[in-house]
Amino acid sequence: MQAIEVLERLVGFPSVVGTPNGEIVAWIRHYLQSHGAVVTELPGPEGDRSNLFATIGPKETAGYILSGHMDVVPAAESGWTSDPFRLRAEADRLYGRGATDMKGFLAAVLAAVPALAETPLRRPVHLAFSYDEEAGCRGVPHMIARLPEFCATPLGAIIGEPSGMRAIRAHKGKAAARLTVRGRSGHSSRPDQGLNAIHAITDVLACARAEAERLTRGPYEPVFEPPYSSLQVGTLKGGQAVNIIPDSCEAEFEARAISGVDPITLLAPLRAAAEALSRRGFQIEWRELSAYPALSLTADAPLAALLGELTGIEPLAAVSYGTEAGLFQRAGIDAIICGPGDIGRAHKPDEFIFAGELLACQAMVEALGRRCV
Prior knowledge:
Elements: H1 3-11, H2 22-34, E1 38-43, E2 50-56, E3 64-69, E4 88-90, E5 93-95, H3 103-118, E6 125-130, H4 140-145, H5 147-150, E7 156-159, E8 170-171, E9 173-182, E10 186-187, H6 197-215, E11 230-238, E12 244-245, E13 248-257, H7 263-276, E14 283-292, E15 295-296, H8 302-311, H9 325-330, E16 335-337, E17 352-354, H10 355-371
Parallel strand pairs: 3-6, 3-7, 7-16
Antiparallel strand pairs: 1-2, 2-6, 4-5, 5-17, 8-15, 9-13, 9-14, 10-12, 11-13
Helix pairs in contact: 1-3, 3-10, 6-7
């Protein structure tokens, strides 16, 4: 199958983050097995979602991982001019949810599989396809933990997030959490008889604002924009009516961390401020939503040099958005980002990828295979 044909099939599976992905997993597994790949389906703890790990070539020697996620963000936003889960071609543009983020990469890799299967590989090429990346990289850690069962320690992992086919060596880490504060309701004319959850949560919001300001003063890592770690309040919900004491309020926080900083630690002051509210009679629930580490691959790393040669473009030092790459690096595997498409087209109505970008990515994967002979 050509890359566009594969992409058409992949887009047709509405594999929205947080939902069952059995159909897309089954199709990819069958496709890979039909070309002789050794495929393992790895169900996650949710029970209705799985990762896929496949190997082409001898698994006993060190090779390379091509990694991408099968899930997509929802497509309920207005502005779509066609069915988001049916690939639409218009000139060189291919429209559909996930076309850029990141089923385009998966399609290019799968289209290259027949060529890889016919190549006498001395080093293997592994495919690691994950679930629920869009929920904070929830699926891939389960797969990474089991890699020693399936292959020798890889020489590197290429994470195919949309980068315009320019390799990227670093990105920030991220952590997100949800705080729910529960107080006691009542009539607004008797505030002495209630516990106002919105008033209480303002202590934590003030802490978040102070921490966000503090982070702007460093430490710095100049390759990023901005060059410091950051923190924000992303959502705030609470209250029923103006004359009712609000008995519940919920806020979500996000931190993004430069290299060498654990993003979870950036949220620690907020959690401490939240827990202090329990001493005033409020019930507190703090839930970590997601966390993944930063990626930092040195400029002289062999993997960076390899991607520069395969793409013909000097790798970019860093981006501020995050990927699964930091998780591979934390597991002791060099990782780098390189994939077709543009991150600026992702998570938008009429998401698209250029057909030429698919072909360029397929050519890169096939060239990687020739390096493994």
